[in-house]
Amino acid sequence: MPRASSKSVLMELKNMRVNQIDKSRLPVWAAMLALLLLGTPLVFGQGSNQQTTRDRTINTRAVPSGAKMKFKGVVIRRDADTFTVRDRSRADYQVLLTDDTSIKTYSRGWFRGGKKYAVTDILKGLIVEVEGRGDEQGQLVADKIRFNDSDMRAAITTETRVGPVEENQERISGQMDELSAIAAEARSEATAANERISALDDYDVQDSTVVTFRVNSAVLSPEAKRQLDELAAKALNAKGYVIEIAGHTDSTGSVAKNFHLSQERAESVVQYLAVTHKIPLRRFITPMGYGKTEAVADNTTSAGRAQNRRVEVKVLLNRGMTRPVTTSRTTP
Question: Where is the domain boundary, 143, 164, 185?
């Protein structure tokens, strides 16, 4: 009997020692779990602009309409009337807040209820327990939201430290977008300007006429003057124009004589337009006499030679000067 009693005493002492060891380890595990939960808001609260971009494109899991759910997770996104919670399985749910949603901390016993919070106090990084039912949009309409005081303090600390950084990143991102738009607009304007500059050497014929002359003559006939009057009226109403004048002869006479006569015919047209219609000389391309080298009709016939005794007059418009200029429409 004494031996049995001593053995039972030893067993009781051993069990008491094991229980003491287990109890001593319990606070360690509790502390580690608390640190893990407190660290979670910091992980989700902190983030670069890349994390913010990912938050904007969160794919939430739909809650069946009328289905009752209760889960615990971290707030990873906060909007006006909704917030997104990521649970332990990394599933994301969108939670809808209403005027009837009860938001409190966990109760501290039978006689100490939880502290009430407003809808606006739900912060990004807060660990919450949500209970509610699904609606037709796949959201969870929250009836109850519960959390620990310590988690709320951690979320507030995170919001205070990280919030201004994220706002600054968003502001810089907006400025970069604005600068990119300005740069794109500047490139567009530069391209348009280069095209206009390149087009300065390109001309389009706006109008033209051909005046003819008698044999061996460089004197303008009344009909030729009437044709030039009509051409001048159109040219004076244009912008960025120049006038090209080329004199020609038929095949009669020597080559030298025909070159000289064709030049006189071209100069007589220039003189008439400059003196009679006050067209500035800078508008004229240097008049050229081509002699009989560019016949347009058969010189073996009288009618053909009459057509070759001519001056061709063309009004040319500069593409670069007449092309519309694109103006910037960037709003300040």
Answer: 164
